[in-house]
């Protein structure tokens, strides 16, 4: 029996469509929070789980991607991912309650956690070397344009139709991507090369869930119980992971890797934090419809997305200090402007501040990842990439939970819900600004080191 042809371009298109859809609905849902709070009669701290549980699932699945790709055929992984995504989207398109909505988000998170690494695996293993750089660029562009479109997509649909159409319109897209992928990706023989460290997976999952629940229920006894469980699970994961590696933690012995990883994660925290604060502030405090709130986020997100493909070229030509240093300055300036202008409610100034911040993100975000990974030995690159990808999703979930709890505390602590939202939003921005200053200090400090990359 002859082996079926692997249609590389179509396979990348199919997995790219799934990855794009996954990242799109990650940010599209943020503008729907005020609507969901009213529809399901839930609080700010509860509604944030729509994003948080999705990112939690991705952060748990991504560390398993290397094992899954080595031991399960690409066709089977693609099929499972497509079916989970499609079922999750259908569940949310017709969700009759908040719990059902979260169930759909769990399925979508698992599917996206499989689809993202699968797309890049196909590019790295099937695309010819002379075309690989272009295809990686297209893959990165796919995942950077989607967050820019998400708030506008979600806002317009929520205002003109209703929030369920965020999912309903994705159903035909996912059916097409599934059919294209099943045609393009043939079944290949896979020899099971390794067993998975099931205990490490369990402890990692409990650790992430416990720490996330701590930040989500900070003001309740449940949160502190969850913290204890999370810390115990972290210790058990560390011990078990040493016996059979799931995530290679030796990369943390490299100081540069750790510093630039922390900077990368702080940017991720700020990106997810601001995507929660601004749309909710503008709808609740200013009474602006969801479509306008989504459009308000679009200029900054688009600027960040446009810088993403070219920031690496700037680094190649000028070295890493100039683009990262200038990026830090723009990020600090933009965030400081946001803190100063948010309570004025001036939409133009808020957009300008967000755009300024996103210029800084565009110059720094991918470059700090490049420097971090370049600072470790080549044989540890895959391990470093796994750490970056896993913590990127988890810290995004932590950020959403933290910001929601801060805003929620001020909303419940004041008789005036609108004033509480306004004050809570500013306090949340100030809290995250402190993280930006600390991480920036350590990154700039490395500029004086003599390490060569």
TrEMBL record:
<feature type="transmembrane region" description="Helical">
    <location>
        <begin position="348"/>
        <end position="373"/>
    </location>
</feature>
<feature type="transmembrane region" description="Helical">
    <location>
        <begin position="49"/>
        <end position="69"/>
    </location>
</feature>
<feature type="transmembrane region" description="Helical">
    <location>
        <begin position="106"/>
        <end position="124"/>
    </location>
</feature>
<feature type="transmembrane region" description="Helical">
    <location>
        <begin position="81"/>
        <end position="100"/>
    </location>
</feature>
<feature type="transmembrane region" description="Helical">
    <location>
        <begin position="259"/>
        <end position="282"/>
    </location>
</feature>
<feature type="transmembrane region" description="Helical">
    <location>
        <begin position="221"/>
        <end position="238"/>
    </location>
</feature>
<feature type="transmembrane region" description="Helical">
    <location>
        <begin position="196"/>
        <end position="215"/>
    </location>
</feature>
<feature type="transmembrane region" description="Helical">
    <location>
        <begin position="136"/>
        <end position="153"/>
    </location>
</feature>
<feature type="domain" description="Major facilitator superfamily (MFS) profile">
    <location>
        <begin position="7"/>
        <end position="451"/>
    </location>
</feature>
<feature type="transmembrane region" description="Helical">
    <location>
        <begin position="294"/>
        <end position="312"/>
    </location>
</feature>
<keyword id="KW-0813">Transport</keyword>
<dbReference type="Pfam" id="PF07690">
    <property type="entry name" value="MFS_1"/>
</dbReference>
<feature type="transmembrane region" description="Helical">
    <location>
        <begin position="165"/>
        <end position="184"/>
    </location>
</feature>
<feature type="transmembrane region" description="Helical">
    <location>
        <begin position="394"/>
        <end position="413"/>
    </location>
</feature>
<feature type="transmembrane region" description="Helical">
    <location>
        <begin position="7"/>
        <end position="29"/>
    </location>
</feature>
<keyword id="KW-0472">Membrane</keyword>
<feature type="transmembrane region" description="Helical">
    <location>
        <begin position="425"/>
        <end position="444"/>
    </location>
</feature>
<keyword id="KW-1133">Transmembrane helix</keyword>
<dbReference type="InterPro" id="IPR011701">
    <property type="entry name" value="MFS"/>
</dbReference>
<dbReference type="InterPro" id="IPR036259">
    <property type="entry name" value="MFS_trans_sf"/>
</dbReference>
<feature type="transmembrane region" description="Helical">
    <location>
        <begin position="324"/>
        <end position="342"/>
    </location>
</feature>
<keyword id="KW-0812">Transmembrane</keyword>
<dbReference type="InterPro" id="IPR020846">
    <property type="entry name" value="MFS_dom"/>
</dbReference>
<protein>
    <submittedName>
        <fullName>Transport protein HsrA</fullName>
    </submittedName>
</protein>
């Amino acid at each position: 029996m002859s082996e079926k042809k692997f249609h590389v371009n179509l396979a990348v298109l199919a997995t790219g469509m799934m990855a794009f859809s996954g990242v799109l609905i990650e940010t599209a849902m943020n503008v729907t929070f005020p609507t969901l709070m009213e529809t399901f009669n839930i609080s700010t701290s509860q509604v944030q789980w729509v994003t948080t549980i999705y990112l939690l699932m991705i952060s748990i699945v991504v560390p398993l991607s290397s094992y899954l790709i080595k031991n399960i055929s690409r066709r089977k992984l693609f099929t499972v991912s497509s079916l989970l995504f499609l079922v999750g989207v259908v569940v949310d398109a017709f969700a009759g309650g908040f719990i059902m909505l979260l169930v759909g988000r769990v399925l979508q998170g698992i599917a996206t956690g499989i689809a993202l690494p699968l797309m890049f695996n196909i590019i790295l293993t099937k695309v010819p070397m002379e075309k690989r750089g272009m295809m990686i660029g297209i893959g990165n562009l796919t995942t950077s344009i989607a967050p820019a479109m998400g708030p506008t997509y979600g806002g317009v649909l929520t205002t003109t139709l209703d929030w369920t159409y965020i999912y309903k319109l994705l159903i035909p897209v996912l059916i097409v991507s599934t059919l294209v992928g099943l045609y393009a990706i043939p079944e290949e023989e896979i020899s099971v090369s390794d067993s998975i460290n099931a205990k490490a997976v369990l402890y990692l999952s409990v650790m992430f869930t416990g720490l996330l629940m701590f930040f989500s229920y900070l003001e309740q006894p449940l949160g502190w119980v969850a913290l204890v469980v999370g810390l115990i699970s972290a210790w058990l994961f560390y011990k078990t992971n040493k016996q059979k590696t799931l995530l290679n933690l030796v990369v943390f012995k490299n100081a540069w890797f750790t510093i630039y990883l922390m900077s990368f994660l702080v940017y991720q925290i700020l990106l997810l934090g601001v995507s929660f604060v601004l749309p909710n502030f503008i709808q609740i405090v200013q009474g602006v419809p969801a479509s306008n709130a989504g459009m308000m986020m679009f200029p900054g997100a688009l600027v960040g997305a446009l810088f993403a493909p070219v920031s690496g070229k700037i680094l190649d030509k000028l070295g890493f200090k100039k683009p990262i240093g200038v990026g830090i300055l723009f990020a600090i300036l933009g965030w400081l402007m946001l803190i100063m202008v948010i309570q004025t409610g001036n939409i133009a100034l808020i957009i300008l501040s967000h755009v300024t911040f996103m210029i800084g993100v565009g110059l720094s975000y991918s470059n700090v990842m490049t420097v971090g990974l370049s600072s470790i030995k080549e044989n540890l690159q895959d391990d470093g990439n796994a750490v970056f990808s896993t913590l990127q999703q988890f810290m995004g979930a932590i950020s959403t939970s933290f910001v929601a709890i801060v805003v929620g505390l001020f909303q419940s602590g004041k008789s005036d819900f609108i004033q509480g939202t306004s004050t809570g939003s500013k306090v949340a921005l100030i809290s995250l600004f402190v993280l930006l200053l600390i991480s920036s200090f350590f990154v700039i400090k490395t500029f004086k080191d003599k390490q060569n990359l």
